[in-house]
Amino acid sequence: MATTVPVKRVPETRTGETMRPLGVFEEMEQLAERMLPLSWMRPLHTERLFWGGAIPQVDIIDREAELVVRAAVPGFDKDDIEVSSTADAVTLRGCAEAEEKEGEEEGEYYRHEIRCEDFLRTIHLPCLVDDTRAKATFKDGMLELILPKAEAAKRHTVKIEEA
Are 137 and 3 in contact (CB under 8 A)? Predict the structure, then answer.
C-alpha cells in the first residue's frame, strides 16, 4: 500500500521566461550520455565523485493531462524525503540519519559499500504544471509524483477547415 508524501509548494520568485541555473550541467550530462551511451563504459563512482553525494535515478513520463515523475530512493523512509515544487521544477531532498550500528562487526572492513547518503536533486519539467494539485506517494523505495499539467501546457487538437 502506498503512503502519501506531502508536497510543499514553493512560491514563484521570477516572472517572464523560465530561468534554469543548472541548465548548463544538464546539457553537459546529455553530452556525456551521447559520447558514452552505454552505462557500463563509465565508472560507477564518477557521478558520486562529481556531485558529492548520491543522486536518485528519475523517470519522467508525459501523459495527456499530467506528468509522472518516479524517483528511486532505496534506503530512505517516507519521513526522510522532502518534495517541493514550482510550476516548472520539482526538488527532491533526502536526509539519511546516521544510525549507530548495534553489535558492529569486529575487525577491519575489507569492503564497505553499503551506504545511505543525503541527496538533493532538482528536476526541470518539460512543461508547466499545476503544482497546487501535485500528489506524491512512496512505496518500496520508489517515490512517485503526479503533477497535473497547467491548462496552457495541455495538448489541444486544432480542427482543420477547408479554405
Answer: yes
Dmax (CA) of the chain: 84
Q: How far apart are CA 146 and CA 70, in angstroms?
A: 9
Please state which CATH number belongs to domain 3-12+55-97+115-152. 2.60.40.790
Cell numbers 527532491 correspond to 92
Cα dist. 128→8, 23, 24, 88, 99 in Å? 17, 16, 20, 5, 39
- pLDDT digit string, tens, across residues 18-56: 556 666 777 777 777 677 655 444 444 444 444 445 688
Asked if 82 and 123 touch (Cβ cutoff 8 Å), the reply is: no
The predicted model scores a pTM of 0.60
Mean pLDDT, residues 54-64: 89
Cβ 42 vs Cβ 111: under 8 Å: no
Distance CA 30, CA 140 (A): 29
H-only helix segments in the chain = 23-35, 46-51
